[in-house]
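Z., the sequence and structure:
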Amino acid sequence: MLNMNLQNLFIKFKGKKVFFFVFVFFIISITSLFYFISINTKTEEDKEKDENLAIEESNKEIVEQLEFKKTGDEKEIKRIIPKESKSKNDSPKKTNKTENIKEKDPKEVIKDIKQKKFDQNPEDVVSFLHQGLQKISAGSFKNYEEITKLVNKTYNTEKMLKMIIGEAWKNINSNEKKELIIVFNEYISKNYIKRFSKIKDPVFETLENKKLANFFMIKTLLLLKNNEKVSISYLLTEKDEEWKIFDVLLAGSVSEIATKKSEFNSFLKDGKIDSLLEALRKKNKLLLKN
C-alpha cells in the first residue's frame, strides 16, 4: 500500500516535472521568436529608413539642379534694358556691301546645312563666329547661305526662342517651332549682315573665359577703327556634344534674350505665334533694304 502511494506520488511529480520543462521550453521559444522578429523588423526598418534618407538626399539634389536649370539662365542674364540711343560714331552713309550678297530661301538653307561639330571648347565657337563677322565686314561672303550656316553652327536658336517665348513655347506644335526657328535664324543672320557690313576692319579680343553652373561665359572686346571699344559677352550651352551661343550681352549688361523678350511679347497673343511669325517675316524682308 505504501509502495503504491509512493509510486503514484513519483508519477505525479514526474508528470509535473515534464510539464514544467515543456512550459519553460515553450516560454523560451516564444521569447526567442519575438526577439528574432524584433531584430529582423528593426533591421528592415533601418534599411528602409536609410533608403528613404538616400532617396530624399538624391531628390533634393535633383530638385536643386532642376530649379537652377529653370531659373539659372534667366537670373544670370536678367538685366535692366536701357533706352535705345544712337551712337555719335554711327555713319549716316549707306553701304552697298549687302547688295552683293545673294539671298536664298532660308528653308532650303537650313535643310541643306551639314553641321560641323565644335568638340574642342566654347572659345572655338566664338572665334569661328568672329571670323565670320570679319568676313561680312570685308565683303568676303559670296551668298546669304554662308552667313546662315555661320549662325546655325554657332547659335542655339531653339534655346533662345524657348527663353524668349517662355511658357507659351510648350503649346506650340512641332511644325510651328521649326518654322519659327528658321525665321529667327534668318533674322539673326540679316542683323549681322546689316551691322557688320557697315563696320570696317573689326578686331576682336578675348578678355575672360568663365565656367558657370550649366553654361559658359566668354567676355570679348570689339575694337573699332575710331578707337571705340564695345564689350560683348557670349553665353554658351552644350547640346549633343556641341557648344552653342544662346545669349549675347552687349556692353556687358544688355541681354539679347531680355531685349527680344520685351520686343516680341506684344506679338504673342493667347500663346499663339502667328503674329510673331508674320512680324519676323516682315522684318526680314526690310532688314537689308534700309
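The first strand starts at residue 203 and ends at 211. The CA atoms of residues 4 and 10 lie 10 Å apart.

Let me know what you think.
H.
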